Amino acid sequence: MTVIDGVDVTLTAVTAILQLPLDGVGLHYYTDFITPAEVQVEAMKSFPSKFLLNTESCEGGPNWDKNFVDSPITVFPEHNEFHKQPMYYAMGHFSKFIPRGSKIIRRVQTKSMFTSFESVAVLTPESTVVVVMYNTGSARTVNVKLGNKVASIHCPGAAVITVELPYEP
């Protein structure tokens, strides 16, 4: 594995690296504002047997620069304990419900000055549709349409919610 860090990652650059004899690439994804996620998606289409690992989103605080940052799990070795942070559970909505081989079938993103709502729907290899929703605003009802069926989902404010529905083509 190699890590790409601190550069404007182009499709050409990622493709060139994935042609090397390695299993995958680690990409520091805090630069998504420079390089959109679509670059990663397009590159991975050509190399389905390789992995792309988004890294360096957090280190747990305080870090080397004495910043207090979040991490999925914070370890306190002096007390022989660890704490699962909210980020751990947020990441679980993706890692537990979206298996390898799933295909994105729809993404929705709406933003206003102070809130946003984002969702992604995937078709899994098990023929289910998983929809992960992230709502930073107040509670709302979201209608999820699948074929000729509609499910009204209550999405609490400041929450991540996941629904899994059977796919019937």
UniProtKB/TrEMBL annotation:
GO cellular component: membrane
InterPro entries for this protein: GH (IPR017853), GH30_C (IPR033452), Glyco_hydro_30 (IPR001139), Glyco_hydro_30_TIM-barrel (IPR033453)
Gene Ontology MF annotations: glucosylceramidase activity
Domain Glycosyl hydrolase family 30 beta sandwich: 107-163
Keyword terms of this UniProt record: Glycosidase, Hydrolase, Lipid metabolism, Signal, Sphingolipid metabolism
Catalytic activity: a beta-D-glucosyl-(1<->1')-N-acylsphing-4-enine + H2O = an N-acylsphing-4-enine + D-glucose
SUPFAM superfamilies the record matches: (Trans)glycosidases
Nucleotide-binding among keywords: no
Pfam families: Glyco_hydro_30 (PF02055), Glyco_hydro_30C (PF17189)
One Gene Ontology biological process: glucosylceramide catabolic process
Listed EC numbers: 3.2.1.45
Limits of the Glycosyl hydrolase family 30 TIM-barrel domain: 59-98
Keyword Signal: yes
Top class in the EC scheme: hydrolase
Protein family membership: Belongs to the glycosyl hydrolase 30 family.
Protein name, per record: Glucosylceramidase
Species lineage: Eukaryota, Metazoa, Ecdysozoa, Arthropoda, Hexapoda
